[in-house]
Amino acid sequence: MSRPDFCPSRQDVELGFGDVMGTVECPDEAKARVLELFDTALCRGDARQAVDAIRATLDEFGWRWPWCEQWADEFAHMRQYPYMWKSPRPDDLATCVLLEHTLSSRIYAIGHIKQYRESLAYEPQRWRLEYSHIGCPVEVAISQAVGPARLDAAPPFFPGDRTRLRLVRVPRG
């Protein structure tokens, strides 16, 4: 079966999955099963199916997400929460939603980075990188703390981050 045009390549899925799931503590068997179920849901364009698959599989095996726990502590210290964090300590379902979003964001960012790298190699003076935000002050503050946008510092910067790396055409002088 061929992948739909809107679906990232399997290579991008595996790279992004490895990046994000490397921050999740669970058995390798659970990660392998989640990868297959997540990829199927991604190719169907069904985020809800992905969340359900992640939750059912990880709950079966038992899991922790230390990176999410660290950010929960950080946000509690800041006394501010990003848009996708509905509570200071997300419950199981909310954490799975954050995980699905973070996986998808990272996977799509990998594909964009490849395209951006090609454009920058061809005409570097015509382009600049920037972070794009949807209006959440916490997301803006965290991306600003990361520094100027660059290909090797692509979001998501925390679980549920909606920041995007964009390539913007520079107007001709």
Can you give keywords for this protein?
173 residues; mainly alpha; 57% helix
Q: Output the structural class.
A: mainly alpha
Query: How is the largest sheet built, in terms of strand order?
Result: 1-2
> What does the overall shape look like?
globular
Distance between the terminal alpha carbons, to the nearest Å?
48 Å
Structural commentary:
The protein is mainly alpha-helical and 173 residues long. It has one domain (10-169). 57% of the residues lie in helices and 7% in strands. The chain has helices at residues 10-21, 28-44, 47-61, 66-78, 92-122, 137-146, and strands spanning 127-132, 164-169. A two-stranded antiparallel sheet has the order 1-2. The radius of gyration is 17 Å and the shape is globular.
What's the layout of helices and strands?
Blueprint: H1 10-21, H2 28-44, H3 47-61, H4 66-78, H5 92-122, E1 127-132, H6 137-146, E2 164-169
Antiparallel strand pairs: 1-2
Helix pairs in contact: 1-5, 2-3, 3-5
